[in-house]
Amino acid sequence: MRWPRRETLIPLALGALAFVVAFVQRPGLEVAETKVDLHVAPGSFLRDVVSAWTPSGSLGHVFAGQYGGYLWPMGPFFALGHLLGLSDWVVGRLWIGAVLALSAWGMVRLLDALAGRPRGAGHLAGGLLYMLNPYVVTYVGRTSITLLATAALPWLLLCVHRGLRDPRGWWWPAAFALVLTSTGGGVNVAVTAWLLLGPALLVVYELGWGAVASASARAFVVRLVPVAALASLWWVAAVLVHARYGLDFLPYTEQPGTIWSTTSLPESLRLLGFWTSYIGVGYTGTLRAFQSDAGVYLGLAPVVVATLAIPALCLGSFAWTRRARYAPFFLALVLLGLLVMFVGFPEGAPLRRAATFTYNHAQAVRFLRTSYKARASARSPCMRCARACAPRRSSARRCWWPSRAGRSPAASGWTVSSGCPTGCPRRGATPPTTSTARCHPAGAPWSCRASSSPSTTGAGPTTRSSPP
User: Fold this and answer.
1) What is the C-alpha separation between 272 and 291, in angstroms, rounded?
2) Which of 14, 78, 236, 326 has the fewest Cβ atoms nearer than 10 Å?
């Protein structure tokens, strides 16, 4: 019997763990989240939400835009399970396991592209931390469709990374559009809107510090935007119909002051900050937490320390991985996500006043008031440190010696993919040629820099080779 290679074993192990976690917790208990009919009668539920109008209640009314998003992919998943005769609780656990497995697999694939192979402990730790964290625990038993954005983020970043290097093709724009339209935007537009921060930042980063020319980025974006808009038209149309003809329910739900009162920077770093985790119920008896996980994350000292120490370690690791090619991007993304999350905290701060003014005077962006939903962007960079901090099999050396191929005039520039070029001499050796090539650690933003020796050719201009 041939055992799977480690390259295949890591995503398989993470996927298996995702389904184990989904099934071992209170087996047989069905968690109906917020749409009971999605679990007990998914077929009729799908038929109802296909139309923006429902004849039931108050002589009929326009369905809220939060219903249309269940048409894909969550609604068909539950309908298929119901059609196959599976128990309702089994279908729900299969759904949770599939979402968690896709999250971990996406992170492993993203690390393959941005950090390289072979897969090892870093890929395993990155996928594990991205799959299981406080953000997931907060939503998995309440509105698990929100976790679709979490599962989609690494795949969207991967599509952008690949698509910028194949700007004339349609495959990566189409893949991006398919993933984006599957993020549940029709249920909560803010989740999908904040999710787009990551792909947009990656395009900017690749233009400024990567190996992508502006013409390539322009060609990719020109293909990406219309395809993504067309693929998401089905749920955007439902949201627009509700915005035009439906009831404005925002005045009857949580207000910005309530939402932003719990999004402090420490809580945002812990991937918490969801306001319902900080309130209690029990007006006629003992006050208890509204969410069952709140007592653990807010009351147990070891958990509080651990959820602060892990993000601190991730952020601190950038001091050692700053020369990695995509370390600045991940750091910028986590800082941007944190800025969005605690923009309204504390009360009276300048950003809070600006956010409140915008909410009161710009109705079109009121849906963005739930800034804590930017946690998907804030947590992905922290998982990158797991790969960056993992020990590598070999480390690059600094040398002042060109490769054998680089000694010919036709190969001037010495483009080096990673590490030192082949044939580096021992330390202290004198290069026999008048040109030198300085290598930087593998994965640095610029892997090799070539220059002319001033002793023989004068202070010639320095040129940088393009990374692969």
Assistant:
1) 12
2) 236
Q: How far are the Cα atoms of 88, 91, 161 from residue 41, in angstroms, in the given order?
A: 10, 12, 41
The domain locations on the chain are 6-278+291-389
The encoded tokens of residue 159 equal: 């599509």
Placement of tokens 């991967």 in the chain = 158
Residue 85 DSSP label: T
How do residues 42-56 score in pLDDT, each as one tens digit? 999 998 888 888 887
Contact 187, 70 (CB under 8 A): yes
- C-alpha 465/C-alpha 468 separation (Å) is 9
Measure Cα distances from 439 to 21, 115, 143, 444 in Å.
45, 18, 49, 10
- Residue closest to 33 by CA, chosen among 133, 139, 147, 152: 139
Which residues are CB-neighbours of 76 under 8 A, at least 6 positions away? 46
Residue pLDDT, tens place only, 392-451: 443 333 333 333 333 333 332 332 233 333 333 333 444 444 333 333 333 344 333 333
Q: Answer whether 188's CB lies under 8 Å from 69's CB.
A: yes
The whole model's pTM is what? 0.82
